[in-house]
Predict the structure.
Amino acid sequence: MPEHGGNLSAAARRWGIPPDAWLDLSTGINPWPWPLPPLPPEAVHRLPDEDDGLAEAACRCYGARHALPVSGSQAAITWLPRLRPACRVGVIGPTYAEHAHHWRLAGHAVLTLSPDAVEAALPDLDVLVLVRPNNPDGRVIPRDTVLAWWQALRARDGWLIVDEAFMDATPQHALAPLAHEPGLIVFRSLGKFFGLPGLRLGFVLAERPLLQKMAESLGPWSVSGPGRYWGEQALRDTHWQSRTREKLQQGRVRLGELLTRNGIVPVGYSSLFQYVVMDDAAAVAEALAALGILVRHFPATSGLRFGLPGEAPSWRRLARALSIIGGD
Ligand SMILES: Cc1ncc(COP(=O)(O)O)c(C=O)c1O
């Protein structure tokens, strides 16, 4: 099973620091989440109404024509590979490990590719998966390149799957508005930008017949009443969304500057994290953990991903820890 950030219980056991004493920067989740209004009791006292306005709110927010709500984009990552007979799949990596894992589990032949290797591999692929912006390095493959790959796959009934879980802060780059066309499938998430990972809400954007197939395989009520109620309101709150884009942009720049001042120079970022590669990444992650700060270590790339600290005390705590481990 792939590993994930945010595993505070394991960190607490390993370091003997209680879960609530940690500064958790190990995930790329907005530390200033969309504020949840009170929940009407009907949201849990009745079965979820799949004809509420949730899919329409998602279409409007993402500029898409069709949207299927799912219980987190993870549900789509898990289920979509089961909707195709065994085939050849390229995953552009390193990236969120769940993609390759589930295509393999469903019996497909999976190749992990660097972006530079896609061109040569494409004639032999039926499906290409990419995360844009990528997790953990924030890379955004240029739109024209991605569109050319899509056209090549589409011409032979292939799929291009674009995971846009981290796209909400930069909607100008999104491919969501094209996802009603054959062969393009886009995933979105309420877990990152909206800061609601526990709500377990995400969307698949694709042409209608594929969404119908997916809905059938997921069965009824796959998103909870609270998820539907809060999700719809969050997606319609355009005022909060534009303020949050600005706030995240400022936070991301500030984090990059803080790390750089301490000799930890990012090689990539998204609106929700900074990514560094350094020889002593493991030692830095350990030293921060000993001070109760959890970051995500990627041993395969010698990388570290830092999420955004939220309020002033968290920024001060990180600044202090970085100066301690830097020896200042
Ligand atoms: C790139 C990417 N896609 C999808 C997911 C799944 O998110 P969720 O199921 O909360 O929508 C994650 C979670 O970390 C992720 O990093």
